[in-house]
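Hi F.,

I've been meaning to write this up properly since the lab meeting, where we talked about keeping a consistent format for the predictions we share between groups. The idea is simple: the sequence comes first, exactly as it goes in, then the structure tokens exactly as they come out, then a line or two of notes. No screenshots and no reformatting. I'm using this chain as the first example so we have something concrete to point to.
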Amino acid sequence: MATFNIEYDMTAKVWTYKDGELVITAERSYTKHTDLRVSMAVYKGKDGDFGKGRVLVTRDSVTLSGAQTRERFIKKLVGKNCTISDDGLLALDEAIRSKQTEQQPQTDPKKAAAAPIDYYETAKELLNDPKLLERVGHVIKASGYAGDLKPPKVGYMVATSRLLERPNNLTFTGPSASGKSAAVDSFLQLIPEEDYYLEKAGSARALVYNDADYSHKMIVVAEADSLPEDGPAASAVRSLASDNEMSYDVVERNPETGAFFTRRIIKPGPTCLITTTTKPLKWQMDTRMLASPIPDTKEATKEVLHAHADSVNGRSRPSPDLAPFLALQWWLRLAGGRRVIVPFASALAEKVPPDHVRMRRDFRQLLTLIQSCALLHQCQRPRSADGAIVATIEDYRLVRELALDIFTAAATGGITPQVRQTVEAVKKLAVGEKTAKVVDVARELRLSTEAAWYRVQRAIKLSYIVNQETRDRQPAKLVPGDPLPDATDTLPKPEDVQVHMSVHPPKEDLNIETPSVAAIKTQDLTAINRDSPSAEDKTPIKAGNLIAPTGSIKRLNGVPAGGEDEQVAALVEDGSEGGIDESEVRL
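Output, unedited:
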């Protein structure tokens, strides 16, 4: 049996095949199932001295397992007055495949079994802290982030939603240099690197063709310019953002027969998408994303300046300990519960104004944020008898506190508080026949001219401000446009949801019990279902006060437990007889 001189450079990750005076270098360029393609270069030099000879042939993507491909490659070399054996190319292909198999990570079953408990022990203080999100804000600020903490805290909850069946999608908006990327980086440090795919820049189809696994992961696109806006690739990305799967058909040529065929690329989700932009996304993508504006005020700018100064003024500032936050996310992924019931979802749906069609899609994003919040606080939340996490009004309160402006702007077509302030300023300045200039608006709002112009442009696009200047490169002449709708809260107050549940109790019981701490550590749902809680653990819950009697949950909204409908569950009804037990817990 013939032997071939094939070596592997572990540092450069390059295979070298020497055949007489020829040297062939090869490296993997694409691997998908059994389809292996390599990039190759053929050199000819004295004694086959790699790197010093003359380049004869280069190929970016070669399938060495294909007979016709090898034949064409050999003919190409013959044209250069060189020869190489077919068996040698096959041996090179086999060597590359063998090394690929060796490099597959091996999982230690004992280590994997012990990991969830270890992660829980590291993160248990966070997992059991009612002020978990406040601590997330503190560590973000301690890491050097300056400005409003709401955007990165929303980003953290959106990142956690990757573990749910219907994750959120988020874009950070604002003028250049406003701190959009800083907001992303501030919470991304709290997420394990294995749980996200970062694309700093890429072509329109980069997300389609890479080998990354997107299932229950987060895709972070540094700038929205890398997202395709039109065409099939844009449809594929949109389907990943909203349909939990990317499907893309591409026509390729069979390397052996030369015939064309259609290959379907499928990347299963669910997947969470996060990006940044200075301008609104196109409508079809925009309606699939929540938009979190980055503050552009002078006060925010001053905070950023001081943060930069603190980084170089010589004063020692201890780095925050990120280990518990990373352990928390590891535990959630490896052992935490993922099914979340929102028992007040119907009451919330009744109280949310149905004035805008977009709310049909945004309401699902609101429910997902509530589920994500409950997921983070699951060690403090009650469970159904089959182990599902039960979200409480406290989860909705936390979400509303952070994301009210986001949902209000989405429901009103983009009328953020900043846009509303800008329109009001123009109304105040442009009285009678007078027009307002951008510098006047900036002075009125105590903003920089750049920040004021960014706001004015958004308001002009929404028709709430009109620029009467038609000439290019001339100062804008601003006047009020369409009247602004009245400022109303898109999301109802938590107490209003409670009142609705008191007045309109549901028809079925939602019975809840608390799992043991040991079961929570390892997320042993069998143990949770098997071990009935003690009398001290049982929590009577009454509907009027968002509290209901404990027991065994069987059906929710008339649907068997275990399906997606659990996520939008029935409200609890008052099943108590007589007074309320002293061990009430407010959901």
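Notes:
The first strand starts at residue 5 and ends at 9.
Residues 47-52, 103-114, 524-587 have pLDDT under 50 and may be disordered.

If this format works for you, I'll send the rest the same way.

G.
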